[in-house]
Design brief:
There is one protein chain. The chain has helices at residues 65-79, 84-101, 157-165, 173-176, 178-185, 238-262; strands at 9-14, 17-27, 36-41, 44-51, 114-122, 126-132, 136-141, 146-148, 206-211, 215-221, 279-286. The protein is globular and about 50 Å long. The protein has 6 helices and 11 strands. Strand 5 and strand 6 (126-132) form a beta hairpin. The chain has a single domain, classed as PPM-type phosphatase domain (Phosphatase 2c, domain 1). By secondary structure, the chain is of the alpha+beta class. A 6-stranded antiparallel β-sheet has the order 1-2-11-10-7-8, with helices on one face. Strands 3-4-5-6-9 form a 5-stranded antiparallel β-sheet, covered by helices on one side. The protein is 26% helix and 26% strand. Helix 1 crosses helix 2 (84-101). This is PPM-type phosphatase domain-containing protein. InterPro entries: PPM-type-like_dom_sf (IPR036457), PPM-type_phosphatase-like_dom (IPR001932). Residues 30-245 form the PPM-type phosphatase domain. Pfam families: PP2C_2 (PF13672).
Length: 300
């Protein structure tokens, strides 16, 4: 089941695992379509962030290549009963096949669609996870600490720094820095991973199992929920991110992100590619209760 809860968050118990509660946000940004896909199916959930080719290749059905890639991946995960890493491999193959049907040569890399992903499957006392690209998995622990199962990737910091420092030419970032953006895109499955049909994508896949002992909440989210940074080369303030979640859940983070972005309409103070990015986010609360530290005003 896909959850498309544009502009709203929803909370509901997981039917197969009554000790888990999920809250979701799925919202289109300022682009022409939402290329993020959110998946929730029993004890399986995931977020998928599609990216259309730089040549804006559309599938034959008229939808964007990024949405096509994200949808193929989400649908593959939804139906796959084996390990999540295996689902990712199958999804990658299906993306390649779909691009072939649309006559997109695999060696024309700037024409390839792609998707990042973060997915988990919950079990009784543990969960399986799978991740690639710039989607994130954060754990909030009962002792008030937090940890990341996915690394924060430094994909676009050079591009965004150039954008921030360059004089205003009146051109949008995709025109003004077209060569730089293409250079970064060609690093797919070279310095960072995405599912785009290339076999090399599997080398960047992160997957495994993690105990639920001490885990209060699990957050999965696309980069649209990331806190805006005035310095593109800086590290995200994950403590502030966790504190916002403690105070008001995913909606508190979303509202902060959108407010900061709204105050910077030219996308230069907090450099980015467009006013608002798409958001797909899932929060899983374990055993019906958030971290005790989240409930203490002095810690949040």
């Amino acid at each position: 089941m896909y959850l498309s809860t544009d502009q709203f968050a929803t909370s509901f118990p997981v039917a197969s695992s009554p000790s888990f509660t999920m809250t979701t946000i799925h919202e289109q940004g300022s682009g022409s379509c939402n290329e993020d896909v959110l998946l929730s199916e029993g004890n399986l959930c995931g977020v998928f962030d599609g990216a259309t080719s730089l040549e804006k290749s559309y599938a034959r059905n008229g939808i964007s290549g990024g949405f096509q890639a994200a949808s193929i991946a989400a649908e593959t995960f939804r139906h796959h009963v084996g390990p999540l890493a295996q689902a990712a491999e199958v999804a990658n193959y299906r993306i390649r096949t779909a691009q072939g049907h649309d006559r997109i040569p695999s060696d024309q890399r700037l024409r390839l669609w792609s998707t990042s992903l973060a997915a988990i499957r919950l079990h009784g006392s543990s969960f399986e996870y799978c991740h690639t690209g710039d989607c994130m998995i954060m754990l909030l622990h009962h002792d008030g600490s937090h940890s990341l199962l996915s690394p924060e990737l430094d994909i676009d910091s050079e591009t965004l720094t150039l954008w921030q420092q360059s004089p205003d030419s009146g051109q949008p970032i995709h025109s003004q820095l077209a060569e730089q953006i293409a250079k970064v895109r060609l690093q797919m499955n070279v310095s960072y991973g995405v599912l785009n049909g290339e076999p090399e994508a599997m080398s960047f896949l992160r997957h495994g199992h993690h105990s639920l002992a001490g885990v209060a909440d699990i957050l999965l989210f696309t980069d649209g929920l990331m806190l805006p940074k005035a310095d593109p080369t800086g590290v995200t303030d994950w403590q502030s991110f966790a504190d916002m979640y403690c105070r008001g859940g995913l909606s508190a983070i979303r509202n902060h992100v959108r407010t900061v972005q709204q105050r910077d309409p030219v996308c230069r103070c907090y450099p980015r590619f467009k006013m608002h990015d798409d958001i797909a986010a899932i929060a899983i609360t374990v055993d019906g209760g958030a971290s005790p530290e989240c409930k203490l005003p002095q810690s949040c």
